[in-house]
Amino acid sequence: MAIPKAELHLHIEGTLEPELAFELAERNGIELPFDSVEELRRAYSFTDLQSFLDLYYALMSVLRTEQDFADLAAAYLERAAAQGVRHAEIFFDPQAHTSRGVAIGTVVTGLARALEDAERSLGISSRLILCFLRDRPAEEAMETLESARPHLHAITGVGLDSAEIGNPPEKFREVFAAARAAGLRRVAHAGEEGPADYVRQALDVLGAERIDHGVRCLEDPELVERLRREAVPLTVCPFSNVRLRVVERLEEHPLPKLIGAGLVVTVNSDDPAYFGGYVEDNLDGVRRALDLDPETVRELARNSFRAAFLDEERRAELIAEVDAYRFPAE
Length: 330
Ligand code: HPA
Ligand SMILES: [Zn+2]
Prior knowledge:
Elements: E1 5-11, H1 18-27, H2 37-42, H3 49-59, H4 66-82, E2 85-92, H5 95-98, H6 104-122, E3 125-133, H7 138-148, E4 157-161, H8 173-181, E5 185-190, H9 196-204, E6 210-213, H10 221-229, E7 234-236, H11 238-243, H12 255-260, E8 265-267, H13 272-275, H14 279-289, H15 294-306, H16 312-324
Parallel strand pairs: 1-2, 2-3, 3-4, 4-5, 5-6, 6-7, 7-8
Helix pairs in contact: 4-6, 7-8, 15-16
The protein binds hypoxanthine (HPA) and zinc ion.
């Protein structure tokens, strides 16, 4: 059994495996520009964030109905459960769907149905986090928040994703303030490809409670000290960083530096269908590549629950599960 953990950095659209993409394409009468699952997998040779995003958005064309979104989330949650995930906070990108004529209600209702089913059948608790696309205008983000209002009972927070460079957090000051006023939690991608200053802006301007990725904070020692002092969690995604060339090799990943700096580090999969593994694969990958000892891995798992938007009773319960966990070799 894999170590119990929460997954806090997971784009549901990034869990679309080639097999399901072809199945949904057929169901919806959509022609994919690939002849086979194998040919599609071969297209996953990214050179940076933008080259990944181009394929990521293109493949979403197969997602059309409420059932499509429910099937996508159900497939993820089943895999996640098999990898020891006990709680998942799941990003979705409404603008990538509404821009194709799919209503936001179709997206949220389909996802929420699968999440409720998985809570019952798999014992996984979960949350939905609505992400704004930062390479789209700020006004469109505000319209997206407005259109989400009838569905806020199913949404815990907002996030910020897509192409980072040239799209600083301050562009989204107003929409994050409006989200906060609506009682939503706040996270933001920052310091993946973008500079350390974007991490600072995410905290100061957006009121971000967690930083997604954040690895480039290491370029600014004062910022690292602040993240430590304020115990701001980082949702780090090792396989993603290697595949998008933020980091050259897993063996050179700065995870040990982040841990050594006293930060609340978590390990996550980001877009597992595209980056070569789900969350336990990431955790086991860094454990081997960086020679992490069992107690360090347990601490990463505890951090995932500390950083989650959980009630205190369930948080304590899940951390106790980690405390009791022993690796096969121990
Ligand atoms: O890793 C990511 N970074 C930015 N945007 C994204 N959208 C999906 N995955 C990512
Ligand atoms: Zn991400």
